[in-house]
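Troubleshooting log. The previous run stalled partway through. Resubmitting the same two chains, unchanged.
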Amino acid sequence: MTVLSAEQLSKQYNGTLALNNLNLSVDKGEVFCLLGQNGAGKTTTINLFLGFTAASSGKAMINGIEVHPNDSSTRQFVAYIPEIVQLYGNLNGIENLDFFSRLAGFKYAGAQLSSFLLKAGLQETAHRRSLSTYSKGMRQKVGIAIALAKNADVILMDEPTSGLDPKATDEFTRICKELAADGKAIFMATHDIFNAVNVGARIGIMKQGSLVHTLHSNEITANELQQLYLETI
Amino acid sequence: MFLLLLKSFLRSRIAVAGIVIVLLAGITGIFIGQQHIRKQQEAIALTEHFQQEHIQRNAQFFDKELGLLLYYLRFSLVNKLHPLNALSIGQRDVNSSIQSLTIRNLEGQKYDTDLFNPSNVLTGNLDMGFVLIYLLPLLIIAFTYSLLSEEKEDGTWRLVATQSKRPVNVLIRKLFVRMITVLMVFAVLLLLATFILSLPVDKLYLAVICLAFIYMLCWFGISFWVISLQRSSSTNAVILLSIWILLTVVLPGVANNFITSRYPVPESMATVVQQREGYHEKWDMEKQPTVDRFYAHYPQFSKYPLPDKQFSWLWYYAMQQMGDDEAAVQVKQLQEKLRLREQSSEYIGYFIPTLHTQQQLNSLAGAGLANQLQFMDSTARFHERMRLYFYPKIFEEAKVKSVDWDMFKVEYFSEEKRVSWGGLLLPLLLVTLVFSVTGWMNFNKRMTAFA
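Second attempt completed without errors. Output:
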């Protein structure tokens, strides 16, 4: 069942084509990884699905609803994990989770909030610690917990493993797979080819705003993907 | 969510520092107000005490001639202080609250007041009015200038915008948290002031609370509008501080300059000259014309003929009267101009929230020009009443002992204050509404570019 799709989606910024006629779909329980250089149009695609910017032409759809101008409706189905999960420095991990959950309309008890953080891989001792002691990986885990607490159908990730150490990346991959197994559709923009092959069911390669290749991860190895990627860009 | 936002806000060092600074300034302001009231009350108590002593001592010393005794005797009228004056000292530390007058010409005595510290006039007072009008807006600016920009600069806004159906509601809540904090700071100060200054909880007190509340709301409205422009934190800070300077310094200064140049008062000097000449030149003139003019002013005293001797009290007090009579036109013009100045500044204040709040606060505390003008009118009536009581006794050469001097206690003028709620609050409410609605429209217009 398709939960996220783009139909001839294009975006122009001051005459420059940032996204050109994008067509793709992501099903429930599927992880779609989008590769591409900086400026290829990955973040523009995510912004269009989040409703942060309006499409110049075409449609960005979430659960069959066109994002623009219904972005306030479609956002309830979407969770977002940016490259660096920026949280409120004056609140601890559990308070941040509580705040962002309430924003999405969910009120959880302390134990429930803790369980989301644990599921996201954040150790209990860190839940009430000052955010200034959090590493990037720990912040990512709070970001995942926010997505879990929202129980969103679609999780949009913008270069989530950038800057994470190998262990943290591995843990993140495991969590992504668990989320997909739970039926979440994950759309991930990334530079990390090996992680894309590891976690993604399908992989797209973008160049100058166009989706040039779409591959199934079980049809290609990481090295082959790297070769194709380098030839494409 | 409110509690989390409050927690997040109050854990920031800037918030705590701002609150502490304003609380300290406010407490200082309360004690400065208390000192002002105490000083005035001490002066009034001394006046009450010494008026009787002064009358008794002079009545003993100048017991032969009533006219001579009344040359020296002073009777006091006190401009009663409202306890709210401690919150807004206004002009009450410059304009004397006590007028001690002889029955000689009035105009020469009006401005013979006690000394005041000129440095106070230059710097103004750090009273609660100052804290409200100047410092609280700075606290509001410090608390709100980066309300949205900080989130965008720190990167939290994208997450907020994703999680919330209407991200602008998060801003409203954040603004509300800051509003509650600022209002609480003011409430604490007001509570302390009520306790320390024994302020009566009456209609005027309620008016001060409403005025302060709407004034702060007005600044939140201005801040909300600046936030809605969605500029960087530094740009917001510059815009808001520029507005603060404009509203607290530049515009009131321009308004004052405009009013003083539109309504110049050369009459103030002319009054002094006229009353002095009106009186002094009579020494060198024939007595009868002076007395005739006195009779024309007070026909009831024409039954007292001018005594045929070198000096008479009838002639002397007629001369004194001429000082006032000849300056009467200038006095009227001066009062008229001062009233026009008051009226104009009130009208201009409708468009300048700071000026309006200052004027209204002074007015509620009986510390403005209107109070001073009314006190001067009352002084003139008091002086006239004294004259009319003593003139016949002087002209009949009554014995000093025939007067019951004990009945001349210090008298009080109390301004009758009516609160015009519309005039008090409507200008500020309108400004608040204009900025808030414009801010809201800006947010709605730029929703897609929100993150």
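Takeaways: Strands of chain B lie at 75-79, 98-101, 411-413. Residues 13-61 of chain B form the longest helix (49 residues).
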